[in-house]
Every structure is written in C-alpha cells, then in structure tokens.
Amino acid sequence: MMPRRTLVIALLPFIAILAGCQQEKDEASSQRAALAAIAETNAKTLQALNTNDLELMNSLVADNHIMMIPNRPELSGRAAIIASNRNLVESWTNVEIWKPAETVVSGDWAYQRGAFDITLTPKKEGVRAIRSVGKYIHIYQRQPDGRWLMIRDIFNDNGAAAAQATAPSPEPQGEAK
C-alpha cells in the first residue's frame, strides 16, 4: 500500500488539472455574461436613440465617456455627452442601426468594432435629412455596479457614395448603432 503522503503527491497533478478545467469554465461563463451585458447596453442605447428617450439615453452615459465625432472637437465627460444628447433629441429624429463585427472582452474592459447606418431627420422644416453609413469602435468598461457602459465612441463615415449605394434597412438586424 502506498503511503498517504506519496498518494497525495501523486494526485496533485490531477487535482491541478481539474481545478484548471473549472477555472476555464468560469472564465467562459464570465465572458458570455460580459458579451450579453454589452449587447444589452447596445440594445438600450439604440432604443433610446431611436425613440428619442433622453432619460434612458443619459442613464447609459459613463462619467468618463468620450465621443469622437468626425470633423468636430471631441465631447469629453458626462456633462458634454448629456448636452449633445439633448441637442439630438430636440433637433432630430434618429434611425440608427449598429452591426457589430467583433466584440472582445478582457477583464473589465471590452471593445467592439462594427458598422453603422444612421438617418437623422430634422424636426425643423426646410432642413434636409442626413444619412451616414460608416464604421465604429466602441470601448466599454465594467462599472462598479456591474453594468457595462461605453466609455469611448469613435466613428467615421464611409463617404457620400456609400450612403447612397446602401439602401436603408427596413428593420434593424443584430445590434444596431
């Protein structure tokens, strides 16, 4: 019969393997939960944008959010984003679709790369609607309360020809921007 100490030493590699398998399962589960939470944040953001729901829109703005809009100074911080949201809701009706191509999560951080299609219809008569088709990078951070909020929003337009060549989608598919 093998002495107890020798048996324990012999079993240690197997115990380590089992513990590693459990850790991989926990990490995969955490990854799925993060991806689902980010998808939920995106869905709420789009709902807010597409229904002009200023209260919901502003509830999704992180304190350290920075938005980089093409051909404009960056909007930095919660107050600047909320002011921009107010201007959007007061001036435009928004129809926006996001089509994520990849979402990568690492700890409390994530980024998402994708494409968007947006049509802004002015509430003021005599102003033309604006359509933009382009791409984006969103960076998300898990907040102390567990929510995933966008903290960086960087996007640019593919050009006028792209907006005219791509017909607007009648219904959002996947996640919309």
Overall number of domains: 1
Unreliable stretches covering 5 or more consecutive residues: none
CA-to-CA gap between the ends?
67 Å
Strand order of the largest sheet: 2-1-6-5-4-3
- Share of helical residues: 40-55%
Strand content: 25-35%
Which fold does the CATH topology refer to?
A: Nuclear Transport Factor 2, Chain: A
Radius of gyration: 22 Å
- Rounded mean pLDDT is 86
CATH class equals: Alpha Beta
Order of helices and strands: HHEEHEEEEH
User: What does the oligomeric state look like here?
Assistant: single chain
Structural class: alpha+beta
Number of helical stretches of at least 4 residues: 4
Number of DSSP-assigned strands: 6
Q: Which word captures the global form?
A: elongated
Q: Could you please describe the fold and organization of this structure?
A:
The chain is α+β, with helices and mostly antiparallel strands and 177 residues long. It has a single domain, classed as Roll (Nuclear Transport Factor 2, Chain: A). The chain is built from four helices and six strands. A hairpin with a 2-residue loop joins strand 3 and strand 4. The model has no long low-confidence stretch (mean pLDDT 86).
